[in-house]
Write a structure and sequence with these properties.
The chain is built from three helices and twelve strands. The protein is mainly beta. It has one domain: Acetoacetate decarboxylase-like.
Length: 265
């Protein structure tokens, strides 16, 4: 039987996700926000602590993605294109500032499988965001001063977040937009009776991004709302205020991760 993920099959082409490398390119609409530091701290797993330099700070990102692996998968856009929404919170691993991802939603099954392998706690969602086109005209915002972009996400038919960004200036140093490594929790429980509280995998891991590139980066003001919904806890991160809004293109490759701590039983 062949394949990287299930289903393992005779020819190995029906698996949900091919083996790495995984190449990503996308457009980000995001908003910086601040929540109650206690609410942010409550989401942290063992091994992470609140960042005392930025208590309660988070970032919400809506991303229009395109994916490829080793076989020009982007030529099959129905499988390779997807949209995603995620929240990160500032934290520390020992003395290292990191970004912790407690919630993330995606509309593609292959992206969900790749996410679980990396430790992202992906759930199904419906994500939309305004797109900018170089042709101009009244049907598109300008990617520049005064450009306005909206974004929404819903889960199980309920809207859970909405955002609006107004651009004011180009970013002189795009690296400042993604200057914290992402930390996730790879968690796969057991089903065997008597072992439900003994996960087969429970690892704190740090993402490794090869050749990260940011272009066409703009910042401005941002509005963001998290809406209460049945079966969701995103709104528990009640927004006290927002900071910068931003828009940029992002690309990177994933082939590896770093295990920070293995608490598997």
């Amino acid at each position: 039987m062949k394949g990287y993920t299930v289903p393992l099959t005779p020819r190995g082409i029906a698996n949900l996700a091919p083996k790495p490398p995984w190449h990503y390119a996308g457009t980000v609409v995001g908003v910086e926000f601040f929540t109650d530091p206690a609410a942010a701290a409550a989401t942290l797993p063992e091994g992470l602590t609140p960042d005392p330099d930025s208590p309660g700070r988070g970032v919400a990102m809506f991303i229009d993605w395109q994916f490829s692996a080793g076989d020009l998968e982007y030529l099959d856009p129905a499988r390779s294109q997807y949209r995603e929404f995620l929240v990160t919170l500032d934290a520390r691993h020992d003395d290292t500032p990191v970004a912790w991802c407690p919630y993330i939603y995606v509309d593609n099954d292959s992206a969900m499988a790749r996410g679980w392998i990396q430790g992202f706690p992906k759930k199904l969602g419906t994500v939309h965001q305004t797109r900018a086109y170089s042709v101009g005209g009244p049907g598109t915002p300008v990617l520049g001063p005064g450009g306005r972009f909206g974004a929404t996400v819903s889960a199980a038919g309920q809207r859970i977040a909405e955002a609006e960004v107004t651009l004011t200036q180009a970013v002189s140093d795009p690296s400042t937009l993604m200057n914290r490594p992402m930390v996730n929790l790879r968690h796969f429980p057991r089903l065997a009776a008597g072992q439900h509280d003994q996960p087969a995998v429970h690892e704190l891991v740090m993402s490794v991004l090869d050749n990260p590139t940011i272009s066409d980066a703009w910042v401005g003001t941002g509005d963001l709302s998290f809406l209460p919904a049945r079966g969701e806890e995103l709104a528990d991160l009640a927004i006290q205020r927002t900071g910068k809004g931003f828009h940029f293109d992002l690309a990177y490759t994933v082939t590896d991760l770093t295990t920070l701590a293995d608490h598997s039983n």
